[in-house]
Amino acid sequence: MKSSSSMSFTFLLISVVMLSRADGNSTEERNQQQIGTFFKKGHTNNWAVLVCTSRFWFNYRHVANVLSIYRSVKRLGIPDSRIILMLADDMACNSRNPSPATIFNNREQAINVYGDDVEVDYRNYDVTVESFIRLLTGRVPENTPTSKRLQTDEHSNILVYMTGHGGEGFLKFQDSKELTSVELADAFEQMWQMRRYHEVLYIVDSCHSESMFLTFYSPNILAISSSRVDEDSLSHHGDSRIGVYVIDRYTFYVLQFLERVRPDSLVSMHEFFKVCPKSQCISTVATRKNLFQRDVKEAQLTDFFGGVRNIELTYDLIDLPQSAIRA
């Protein structure tokens, strides 16, 4: 049904506010202040780089870790086009897997985190220290497809999640190479110099994982580890049908927390930092906040885990043609 009378629509994104034009300049000043407040966060898009660095069947849990985080960030609004997923081995099709094409993160096997819509960008021997550093810094080969590029800018918030085996100052890649904490710190500094991020949330679930961010020196980075420098990070539980552990402790409790978060949630990073106290993790979750320029109580979890949509604010009346109006 079409309307027979001309209509005007005022598009006010974020909230609908009735403003009187009788105030003249004072109204205009309030409008500009509202717009300035909206854009003060300085970021317009979110990305996620999710990395499993392990190989071999007995490291099944590390693949389950990263696929579980992948599932969570997608549910909270980050599309596959802005997620880079790196899996060092394909557990779903491993000959030892009693349920081919599945990966479970719980012995109840309620959720197949491999699912039907997983887009793996770097697989098997493509997951290397070199490819990871090149991805972060944008120095990928010219023939690299868009899906394997981190196309971020100075308005991008980036979640970097890594899981695998680590030691003091390094993470193993493919059980043969090592990414050192110094290499990672320098990569983030290059990203900052090249304006490839606005803020970074770095999460690492491995033994001695605090050591991976003690060398960071670039601004606007929040960091969380599942263990202190001198601690191991432990598995949560195994599945006797599969014959291996299926998830690590820290990631298990992170997922419990994330399942209660909605895309429009106001949960802060301060609350997220409380996930997995030592009574649950056994290891000690460590954080680093001194490089971050905002109060973590004001920074929202969805600033990193959620989707961000570009919008345009206007206070002008827009006359739509009659043909565009539908009842």
TrEMBL record:
One of its GO terms (biological process) is attachment of GPI anchor to protein. Keywords: GPI-anchor biosynthesis, Signal. GO terms for molecular function: GPI-anchor transamidase activity. The keyword Plastid does not apply. PANTHER family: GPI-ANCHOR TRANSAMIDASE. This is GPI-anchor transamidase. It holds the Pfam family Peptidase_C13. Belongs to the peptidase C13 family. Pathway: Glycolipid biosynthesis; glycosylphosphatidylinositol-anchor biosynthesis. One of its GO terms (cellular component) is GPI-anchor transamidase complex. Residues 1-24 form the signal peptide. It comes from Galendromus occidentalis (western predatory mite). InterPro entries: GPI_transamidase, Peptidase_C13. The active site is at H165, C207.
